[in-house]
């Protein structure tokens, strides 16, 4: 998804106009991918990131994916008992 957001700049002067179309689509995909309040908040942030000029380099989908998978991995690790 981040690659699609950056790909809108492949055609000169087309990037910012394509972002007007891509921003709401990206926000909906973000919400559906991650769900819950994190998906809603991230979708709003992703929409703002895509609609603002010059911010398409931020890999918001990748960052959220790493945050979710890193947290899930740590939650499955048993706690150590200190003696």
Q: What can you see in these coordinates?
A:
- With 83 residues, this protein is mainly α.
- It is 70% helix and 0% strand.
- It has four helices and no strands.
- It has helices at residues 2-7, 15-34, 36-51, 60-75.
- The chain starts with a helix and ends in an 8-residue tail after the last helix.
| DSSP strand tally | 0
Outline the biggest β-sheet.
Answer: none
Mean pLDDT over the full residue set:
81
Number of discrete helical segments: 4
Helix content: 55-70%
Q: List SSEs in N-to-C order.
A: HHHH
First CA to last CA: what distance? 47 Å
Class per helix and strand makeup: mainly alpha
Shape: elongated
Rounded Rg: 16 Å
Unreliable runs: none
In percent terms, what proportion of residues is strand?
under 5%
Which oligomerization state do the chains in this entry correspond to?
single chain
Please write out the topology.
Layout: H1 2-7, H2 15-34, H3 36-51, H4 60-75
Summarize this structure briefly.
Helices cover about 70% and strands about 0% of the residues. It has helices at about 1-5, 15-35, 35-50, 60-75.
